[in-house]
Amino acid sequence: TPIILLVFAACEAALGLSLLVMVSNTYGTDYVQNLNLLQC
């Protein structure tokens, strides 16, 4: 069973990481655009 838990944890970590990257990409671009607007 420990191996199954390890595999499950690894999959969950990969899923969470990809989700975080997607969220940071969508919100990151908006944040940068807002900063550019503020600078103008």
Automatic annotation (TrEMBL):
Keywords: Membrane, Mitochondrion, NAD, Translocase, Transmembrane, Transmembrane helix. It is found in: Membrane. It is a multi-pass membrane protein. One of its GO terms (cellular component) is membrane. InterPro entries: NUOK/Mnh_C1-like (IPR039428). GO terms for molecular function: NADH dehydrogenase (ubiquinone) activity. Belongs to the complex I subunit 4L family. Core subunit of the mitochondrial membrane respiratory chain NADH dehydrogenase (Complex I) which catalyzes electron transfer from NADH through the respiratory chain, using ubiquinone as an electron acceptor. Part of the enzyme membrane arm which is embedded in the lipid bilayer and involved in proton translocation. This is NADH-ubiquinone oxidoreductase chain 4L. It comes from Catopuma badia (Bay cat). The lineage of its organism: Eukaryota, Metazoa, Chordata, Craniata, Vertebrata. The gene is ND4L.
